[in-house]
Amino acid sequence: MFSRINHLAISTDYYAVNARFYQALFGMKASNNQRPARAAPVGDGHIGLNNIPRRDGRRSGLDHFGFEVENMAVTLERMRKFDPALQHVVRPAVRPNAAISAHDPDFIIFDLAERDSGKAQDIFAENKGDLPQRYINHITLRVRDIERSAAFYSSVFELQATNEGDEGSRRLSDGRVTMVLLPWSMDNFVGHDPQPPSLEHFGFKVESVEAIKKEMIDLIGINPQMATMPLGLGEEGEARLSVFKQCPMGEFHLTDLEGVYIDVSER
Q: How many CA atoms lie within 13 A of 38 on its CB side?
């Protein structure tokens, strides 16, 4: 494939313990390139999950995702051709897994690194080994115009459509990770606070949903700091959860310690 989704980033005040949560529940591995003051990256063997400290003026939560592309110049030219208003910026040199940050038609931010450039290293580098029992298998974006977004990600990054049958959504794939596009509408926010178009959540393929549920309880018993945020409580909580459940890939829904939405499935 011309491109692959190679990382996600979470901005959090609890970046170190949040990384431990993903290690404890999902078996993710810590990076060999430790930079304790800057981030706590972990990975599933194919995708890096970067827990970064929340900085001044920034919101916490799921922050952005990243692509590794075959050719950076071609990628940027395709973006200009799709929409000349799309912008990009060179990342600081200390960022180990991205050379450029850019945005899609809904201003959803993603990073770019060129394959074999040396930027995508360690847990962010491509790994052709077997998948673990628990691994990230999808990311879900809320977008204003599904067909426009699908055209953007397919024409720029050559993601392939994997379905036509999910009513109200589209699925694209890099060959391993699925990008789910769901419609953004103010109607989704009746009864709770509106949110802009965004990278809404991501999900894991697991060997057993029941095992995840049991291990969550066991983790809290071992370490109370591993308690995740409750979902579906009160009228507003029910409304938020119903929107979260619109993703066709999730069977069981939870959060991490920062409140980032995660879903899991055996499928």
A: 10
The tokens of 121 are what? 């290293």
Structural contact between residues 115 and 67, judged by C-beta atoms closer than 8 angstroms:
no
Three-class secondary structure of residue 218 per DSSP = helix
pLDDT at 119 over 60: no
Query: pLDDT (tens digit, 9 = 90+) per residue, 177-231?
Result: 999 999 999 999 999 999 999 999 999 999 999 999 999 999 999 999 999 999 9
Rounded to whole angstroms, the Cα distance separating 244 from 223 reads: 27
Span 123-156, pLDDT tens digits: 555 556 677 999 999 999 999 999 999 999 999 9
The verdict on 150 and 251 lying in the same domain is yes
Cα 103 from Cα 221, distance rounded (Å): 41
* Cα atoms in the Cβ-side hemisphere of radius 13 Å centred on 164: 0
Structure-block tokens of residue 159: 């993601």
Cα distance between residue 81 and residue 156, in whole Å: 9
Question: CA-to-CA distance for 140 and 53, rounded, in angstroms?
Answer: 23
Number of other residues whose CB lies within 10 A of the CB of residue 6: 29
Residue 111: beta bridge partners? 66, 101
Half-sphere exposure of 103 (CA within 13 A, CB side): 14
Range of the domain at 102: 3-124
The tally of domains found in the chain comes to 2
d(CA 79, CA 51): 28
> Do residues 8 and 47 lie in contact, with contact meaning Cβ atoms separated by under 8 Å?
yes
Say if residue 97 is in the same domain as residue 150. no
172 in Cβ contact with 155 (< 8 Å): no
Residue 33 — very low, low, confident or very high, per pLDDT cuts 50/70/90?
low
